[in-house]
């Protein structure tokens, strides 16, 4: 069985890797890709998504641009981490196709309504503006979506502020709508993603794949590692967004626990905080969950295997050899 997903993203270095994982893992059926302002402006992140799709040979999947600003607040991008293009570092190919004319919010709604209830998972890896607008525009999708698995927030960690993670902080009102809508929400936050470090052994395994997309990821991680070291003091960069896709693929790799979570929208010092109640067992019927524990080895094996499956756009994936060096490097991930 495959998991049908809509990936809502703002590429972004880690969003690009999330898109490659969603495309390359056979357990994911990528129904649509939508973009939202976040790591950079909407025009930039949309072009980035199309360029990554071109690099990876993604075809037959609609891409649609969405919200170009938060619901109420001013645009706040992350050029300090992702650069002026949103994907600084590697050379990006010109997109081979354009986004569809449909607005991302409409595409999300249409996609959910076109499939059986309980079969489509929404995977937002940027701000939650598009998802909130979709829930408000067509409330009937809330009961049809299987779940929302988002990268954002944190139980005990912030990065945009001491208590707020970037994706939630840039549009806390949208995040509050999503968390309170009534569908199942899995928060794959910083508590989890700060465990997904791309250290030297991970980088060796990625390089050993030897394909164009793998080299692209390695070059992404060069830039990402430098900005995370300079801005946040990490020895190796945490690669956040693929963790949300990995939870959909195999929740034993990205493990989550039920707990009540609400988003603070009015605190003087705490706006954007995801307030998780861990005082006791989650109440019966709790619909919000937080991912807290990552199987680091198996997570990076997913990413490396997806890159190997993708192969090179000009070469069918089946003809790209899973050579002994690549296999050995994968086995050494720890």
UniProtKB/TrEMBL annotation:
Keywords assigned by UniProt, alphabetized: Glycosidase, Hydrolase
Any one GO molecular-function label of the UniProt entry: uridine nucleosidase activity
Keyword Hydrolase carried by entry: yes
Keyword Secreted: no
Top-level taxon of the source organism: Bacteria
Enzyme Commission number, as recorded: 3.2.2.1
A GO cellular-component term linked to this record: cytosol
Transmembrane segments: none
GO biological process: purine nucleoside catabolic process
Domain Inosine/uridine-preferring nucleoside hydrolase: 5-301
Record PANTHER family: INOSINE-URIDINE PREFERRING NUCLEOSIDE HYDROLASE, URIDINE NUCLEOSIDASE
Protein name (Swiss-Prot/TrEMBL): Purine nucleosidase
Organism listed in the record: Pseudonocardia alni (Amycolata alni)
């Amino acid at each position: 069985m495959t998991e049908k997903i809509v990936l809502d993203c703002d590429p972004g270095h880690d969003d690009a890797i999330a898109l490659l994982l969603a495309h390359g893992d056979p357990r994911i059926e990528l129904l649509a890709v939508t973009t939202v302002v976040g790591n950079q402006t909407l025009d930039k992140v949309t072009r980035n998504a199309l360029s990554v799709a071109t690099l990876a040979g993604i075809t037959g999947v609609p891409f649609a641009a969405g919200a170009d600003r938060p619901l109420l607040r001013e645009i706040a991008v992350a050029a300090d981490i992702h650069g002026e293009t949103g994907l600084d570092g590697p050379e990006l190919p010109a997109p081979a196709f354009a986004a569809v004319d449909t607005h991302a919010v409409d595409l999300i709604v249409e996609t959910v309504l076109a499939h059986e209830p309980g079969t489509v998972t929404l995977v937002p890896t940027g701000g939650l503006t598009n998802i909130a607008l979709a829930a408000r525009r067509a409330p009937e999708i809330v009961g049809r979506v299987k779940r929302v698995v988002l990268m954002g927030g944190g139980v005990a960690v912030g990065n945009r502020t001491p208590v707020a993670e970037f994706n939630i902080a840039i549009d806390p009102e949208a995040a509050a709508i999503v968390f309170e809508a009534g569908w199942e929400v899995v928060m794959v936050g910083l508590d989890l993603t700060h465990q997904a470090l791309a250290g030297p052994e991970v980088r060796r395994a990625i390089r050993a794949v030897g394909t164009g997309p793998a080299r692209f990821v390695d070059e992404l991680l060069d830039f990402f590692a430098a900005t995370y070291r300079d801005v946040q003091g990490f020895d190796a960069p945490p690669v956040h967004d693929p963790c949300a896709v990995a939870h959909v693929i195999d929740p034993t790799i990205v493990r989550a626990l039920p707990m009540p979570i609400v988003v603070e929208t009015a605190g003087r010092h705490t706006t954007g905080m995801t307030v998780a109640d861990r005082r006791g067992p989650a109440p019966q019927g709790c619909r919000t969950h937080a991912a807290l524990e990552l199987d680091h080895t198996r997570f990076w094996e997913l990413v490396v295997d997806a890159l190997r499956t993708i192969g090179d756009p000009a070469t069918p994936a089946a003809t790209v050899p899973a050579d002994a060096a690549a296999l050995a490097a994968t086995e050494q991930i720890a």
